[in-house]
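Please, structure for the following, as tokens.
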Amino acid sequence: MLPAFAPYLLVSALHLVLQYVGPAWSVTATKTLLMPLLALAVLILVPRVRAAAPLLLLGGIAFSWGGDVLLTFPGDGWFAAGLTSFLLAHVVYIVLFLRLPRARRRPPAWSTVYWAWVVVMLVVLLPHAGMLAVPITLYAVAIGLMATTASTQGGWVALGGAFFVVSDSVLALGRFLPGYEFAAHDFVVMSTYLAAQGLIAWGVVARLRTDRSASDPSSPAPDRRADATAR
């Protein structure tokens, strides 16, 4: 599986480096390439894309790409559009995680931390959100649900959901909380975001390939390392 994900990993690393040394256009250009490269890895590794799970994974990646592009433009209108695109991505991921066979029948006890996070973030952000208060509330609930449903999958998918919460928290605090800033803000947002997307895709693809191999003994056996990480 790793060779298929290699372009995504390489451009992710390049994007993070360019945040410090590259011109602004190069940061934007590499950012717009990231989700298409992740989608390409999924298409290479899961050829039966007409099935519901691969299509949902690709849909979540596509809406995330829309959010990436829209958030490159300044202004509250573009921010709201990007937020909406990411909201749709989280809804698609929620449906995906509910449709996949679960590692746990119920969310683990530690996942209640996500709902404490939702409450804290809304208390902190809403006084500064203005007209975006309702979209931010909807988004916080959606990402809480996404992370909770990801936790039922266990392994890489659960870790990806957790990284998504970290990324969006840092992004939201930097956007709305006065006086909140630090030098590595953009690096933290993007590194955790790219880890989240990559881990979710890796975990879901590994699960799909394992399930396909189990249901069709004549199909090529997936990489043993990928199988081990999916369990």
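The two ends are 15 Å apart (CA to CA). Residues 23 and 29 are 10 Å apart (CA to CA).
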